[in-house]
Design goal:
With 163 residues, the chain is an alpha/beta fold. Helix content is 18%, strand content 33%. The protein has one domain: Dihydrofolate Reductase, subunit A. The radius of gyration is 15 Å and the shape is globular.
Length: 163
């Protein structure tokens, strides 16, 4: 089950200058809970936005740079290679960025989406989901609180069986 995991703003904003444009501690906790013990597939820029590799996950980094090497990662040069590396994982996660999500949407079985209820100045966007291809199976809304400047909703989608 290939899963995209993503947090986006109202207009599918992902981030700006290789960073998130909001801070949602509960979403970080959810990301950790869902991805721990799995392969996380990402682009080089997404990996470089982390202060260090995330614990208890296999980092698969897609880059065009044939000479790129980073400790704590498996470097590949295509989504096909990334999925081959993760083939024994029951649920590898595609975690971004924008180009990697575009490669992942056609092959994904599931989307774990956090919709942040706000509009943001961004330079990277999540591709538009063809909603007729997906079934919303879970929705969980969270209001603004002392730790969360924005309301947000967790949305879980499964790909419909299209014949």
């Amino acid at each position: 089950m290939i899963t995209l995991i993503v947090a986006v703003g109202k207009n599918n904003e992902l981030g700006k200058e290789n960073d998130l444009v909001w801070h949602l501690p509960n979403d970080f906790k959810r990301f950790k809970k869902l991805t721990t013990g799995h392969h996380i597939i990402m682009g080089r820029k997404t990996f470089e936005s982390f202060p260090k590799p995330l614990p208890n996950r296999v980092h698969v980094v897609i880059t065009r740079n044939e000479k790129y090497k980073r400790e704590g990662t498996i470097i590949v040069h295509s989504m096909k290679e990334a999925l081959q590396i993760a083939k024994n994982d029951t649920q590898p996660f595609i975690i971004g960025g924008g180009e990697i999500y575009s490669l992942g949407i056609p092959i994904a079985d599931k989307i774990e989406l956090t919709r942040v209820h706000g509009s943001f100045d961004a330079d990277t966007f999540f591709p538009e989901i063809q909603i007729n291809e997906w079934e919303l199976i879970k929705e969980e809304h969270h209001d603004i609180d002392e730790h969360h400047k924005y309301a947000y909703t967790y949305l879980t989608y499964l790909r419909k069986n299209i014949n």
